[in-house]
Amino acid sequence: NELAKLINYFEKNNNCYIVVGDFNSDPNRNKPFDQELKALIKKERLTCFEEKWNNYSYSYSNGVHYSLIDHVISTSKVVDIIESVEIVKPNVLNISDHLPIKTKIKLEIEIVNQKIQINYASLLENEILSQKLIEKLEDSDPINIKSVIDEIINSLHSSMISCSKKVNNNKILRKIKRKSKDWWDEKLEKLHTEMKQQLWIYKQSSYTDSQSKIKYKRLKQDFRNTQRKNLNDVNKKFTKLLNSYKTLNLKAWRLSKRKRRVATECQLNVENLLEVFKEMFNKKIVTRNEENERDNEALRIENDKFEGEVNNNDKTNFNKININIEFVHKVIKNLPNGKARGFNDVSNELYKYGSTRSLIELTAILMEKIINMGLIPTLFKCRQNSSDN
Known about the structure:
mainly alpha, Deoxyribonuclease I, Chain A, 4 domains, three-stranded antiparallel beta sheet, 14 helices, 59% helix, 7% strand, flat, Endo/exonu/phosph_ase_sf, RNA-directed DNA polymerase from mobile element jockey-like
């Protein structure tokens, strides 16, 4: 059976295990299930630990029949781990047919306070692998390589945005999804306790005490009526809040319309504002000084060197320039945070915090293809045109 397969799996991997639960078998009886459990215990050399303490004669009762069908079973290897096994005695608050089994286990657990990692990187890794972006890029035909590169870049950026939204939504749901019972109060608590007490008395009488049965049904009806009333009060409170919000919203729009009808002039000189704006963003670039000239000259030298390598490259040789994956990883890892998003709404953080092996490899291959083929993806041209305008 399934239990035997599970035990064999644990034994094969040398794992310690404790099986706790409802076996629906009592070793003190001779029914088919009982004999099967006894045979399994004997074959696997197992021990029923609740028999060792033997503090209660049964663990299940429906008011008529009593049996010991709940067990704590394991091998002799865990004798030193289990400190005690206790079948908790019946209680009026326990309306179940089974009695709880309390097991004390002595374990040494090494607690490591690990920082919670956002699973954005793993989600992005799965997207790259499932869409087979690396395989598509490596197996692409040189004739339509440009369209393939455009498609892969768009797919990658779409996956990044989708994964980041998914992680963000999960974080928001974990914050706001709280279980609460505003309708539960002391009166309901008292009715619930009395109801369970009468049910316990009725069950102990083997379902023959008509007086406790009548009391139980009356208390149950009172409990349900009170519960419905409290729920209705809570719903009315939210309805009142919604109505007040609607009233305030209408007042705000009416006030806004009245304000818009009043003609007012802007006291700020727009030309001065434009000059301040230009000075703020262009002063560092426009102003000629020794530092800017030196930086611009260094950039021109690097740019001419790179353009020379690209122009002199044989476009039929795809592997002439090889991009070091570790170098790409280092660049992505050191991307600055808080920069403006790009044309396709992708930020540095989406690359930086998703820098798995697949993303780094895909980025390196994309760079190799673009450089070796002397291509400019359509997305880059859009950026260039928008900046020119």
